[in-house]
């Protein structure tokens, strides 16, 4: 009976040792997970939003028009670098200034928007200039415009639905 008791005691000790090792391993994994750094939020992309997107209905047979939108950004700086739409052959970013009583429009490569700031593209100021107008750009309709941005070297897009407005609206 002494041998049987010793064998039973050894088996019980091995089970307890295996259980202790398992509990220690699980505890160490939990501790390592708790000590790991939190996921970085700096990798998050800025959040873009817009209001008041519009395109001016072309006058007569003109093949050019303008448009605007108010853009907001949160979570990082961005640059508006371009725009496109199936309703136009090309869209350019433009500035407008007065010089010697003359209005001067100039194409620019980008508009920078700082975190928490807004960019307003509108008539009589910075705006979108559209060329090669397709059918369907008439007052009361809407057109989709894809705005292209760059944020920390990463490309971003925002599709806006722009109301087509008659001149003067």
List the helices and strands and how they pair.
Layout: H1 2-35, E1 47-56, E2 64-74, E3 78-84, E4 88-99, E5 102-108, E6 111-113, E7 118-121, E8 127-133, E9 142-151, E10 154-165
Parallel strand pairs: 1-10
Antiparallel strand pairs: 1-2, 2-7, 2-8, 3-6, 3-9, 4-5, 4-8, 9-10
Give an account of the 3D structure:
The protein is of the alpha+beta class and 169 residues long. It contains 1 helix and 10 strands; from the N terminus they run αββββββββββ. The chain has one helix at 2-35; strands spanning 47-56, 64-74, 78-84, 88-99, 102-108, 111-113, 118-121, 127-133, 142-151, 154-165.
Name a few traits of the molecule.
single chain; 169 residues; alpha+beta; 10 strands; 20% helix
In short:
The chain has 169 residues and is α+β, with helices and mostly antiparallel strands. Helix content is 20%, strand content 49%. Strands 1, 2, 3, 4, 5, 6, 7, 8, 9 and 10 form a ten-stranded mixed sheet that branches.
Helix coverage percent: 10-25%
Task: Give the low-confidence spans.
Answer: none
Mean pLDDT across all amino acids = 84
The protein's oligomeric status is: single chain
| Structure class | alpha+beta
Tell the overall outline: elongated
* Helical run tally: 1
Tally of extended strands?
10
Task: Encode the helix/strand succession as letters.
Answer: HEEEEEEEEEE
Q: Which strand-content bin applies to the residues?
A: over 45%
Major beta-sheet overview? 10 strands, mixed
Rg over CA atoms: 31 Å
